[in-house]
# Entry
Amino acid sequence: MSMANRRDQKKEKQQRRPRAPFIAAMLLSSLVLTAVLAWQAQYAAHSHRSIAEGVLRDYAALAADEYVRRAANQIGYYGYDPLIKSLMGHVQTLDRLPTLPGFRAEADDRTRAALELVRDLFLVRFDSPASLLYTGNDPEVKSWLANDFPHRQAELQKASRGFLTVHPILGDQPHTFIYAPVNGDATTLAGFELATDALEGWFQSAFQRAPLLPPSLAKGNDTNAWIGLTVYDPGGQPVFRSIHAPSYDLEAERAFADAYGGILRGMRVVASINPEAASHLVIGGLPRSRLPVLLGLLAVASGLLAAAVLQIRRERALTQLRSDFVARVSHELRTPLTQIRMFAETLLLNRVRTSTEQQRALEIIDKESRRLTHLVENILQFSRGDRGTLTLAPRPRNLAPLVSEFVEDFRPLAHHDGTRFKTRLEDMVVPVDEDALRQILLNLLDNAIKYGPKNQLVSIATLRVNGTSQIRVEDQGPGIPESERERIWHRFHRLERDALSPTDGMGIGLTVVRDLVALHGGRSWVESGSEGGSCFVIELPMAAPEEREL
Ligand code: ADP
# Structure
């Protein structure tokens, strides 16, 4: 075997190898890749979101830290400091505990502004016997003070700001007591109980005084409007809540702890940032979840894949149909060719004995060559229709004589099986392409004979129906089941009973008929014949009244 031959064989083998699984695998891989990309995009968006959330949480912590420092300083510096100093002054000069009204009357402006923080005053002496003076009348507080103050003397000497804050819970209620030494050796202590309710106003003013986050972040906006902030007392009850309720997820908590000498120890602040402010605080803002979009895209990709697979399957089915078609065409052509050759040889070799035999041989050659022409004509028309290059030149013609002529032409093809033709032809002028009409009629008559019984009667009629002209070809064959009446016009479609039987056929005759009729602007269909056979109907538009037969 030559090299070229071997190469050709190899090439052919490669071409024949089924490519569909390969294409399907590529499509599937592209779907998997799309899914991976979607997952990556979702992952990137998710991590971008976590980073942005982390930044917002850091800002919330920053705001909480700043608030702790500011509120403690404000309450300490403008509240506790002047109160303690003023109280010490009174006790030192008067050597007794002032009454609350007396204390107020003597207070300077700064102390008066802080007086709302005082619930009651108290004074403790460690002389023997030790004594406790208390302006209030809460027995629980009184007994607590009496028990507590001996423990505070030593502690007070170490107090960084000159006073000590104690936060006991008495009868479920948090209380705050501020102690300070009246003299250097702390043998006398004075102090006040904090009016916890009054703190709310102080917390409020600490919040409003200035932005909690650096103004540079806000680009002209009020950062406090983005911050939700709540202060909780040691019992866990909210003491102050900013107007922007802290309902945001991104929050941070800070305890007051030792701020300003621990004056608010036990209290804590929870600050949170409104996620809507994210676009101002974080570059790129808080990204929204892309999951729905990505899932949508994935669904579209899957849909496209399914469509592609479907298309591949259709292509394969069509390829199969085409190769079947080629096989059928070859078979169809071989039969008349064999007949022609056989009878031509008989004539050439002078094997005919009588002139009748000679006449018969010539008739068969004539019949088979007509048949061959018809077959080739059909294939040509079909391929033109398939490529969209089928064109006609219709001219107004009287249908009756035309149809009669075609039937006569066809008669020799049918006479061997005893088929009779009956025509009922009404005169009517219709624009038709003569060759196309011949092709149409030959196909219908050919089918009537092919699928009908021997000695049947085939009726051909032309008639006017509702302003259109109809050509009807009715046979006495088996008819066409209702469910198949549309499908038989499709290319390569043959009824199951015929596809399995040895009846010749390529499955393109009716497709050619329909194409040609459509090019005339008409319609074609099949009905039940009056005797159970099929009745094929061709409907053509009539010529306009002024058009005359040419
Ligand atoms: P074919 O070459 O198979 O005849 P056609 O397109 O002409 O192809 O017809 C399609 C199918 O319709 C045929 O295979 C046959 O099953 C059915 N058919 C067509 N004409 C008739 C008829 N007159 N009677 C019964 N069946 C018919």
Remarks:
- The two ends are 65 Å apart (CA to CA).
- The mean pLDDT is 87.
